[in-house]
TrEMBL record:
Pfam families: DinB_2
The protein's name in its UniProt record: DinB family protein
Boundaries of every DinB-like domain copy: 14-147
Organism, as annotated: Hymenobacter aranciens
Amino acid sequence: MYTSSVQQNILAELHHELAQTRRVLERVPYEQADYKPHPKSMSLWQLATHVVNLLAFNTLFVTHNSRDFLDPNAPKPGPTPTSLEELLARFDEYSAVLRRELEASSDEAMTHKFKLHRGEDVIFDRPKGTAIRIMGLNHSIHHRGQLTVYLRLLDIPVPGLYGPSADEK
């Protein structure tokens, strides 16, 4: 349902996209973790872990005003999961934290600036609501799309995300 609340619209979109992302992650075969479709590509497991770790990064947009990639004390994701069960548990944990923080936020808070930078080099300086949409949701959806290509190349049925996939017809 449409609402004029930026925060509520982001939450609704997040709810949908998290459900779809989990469906893709459930199909990632850990036994093929090292698979790469190209030498410049991330491995299957690196990509799946990145998709999950982006949730913690997205939470920073809600809970902080900036993130410096050069800050050695900045929050970092935990160690690389060593099984699909660990990956899904981290996904569920990070999803719950992101939802909780976004639910506790407000439309007014979504207008506050978030600056993403590497020292003096500013990568992104926009309102938090925009940061969540562009660097958060869009970034995650992009990598989830890459993950579905890996699944296709490995001949693993791809779930339909916005309607049925070729595997579901």
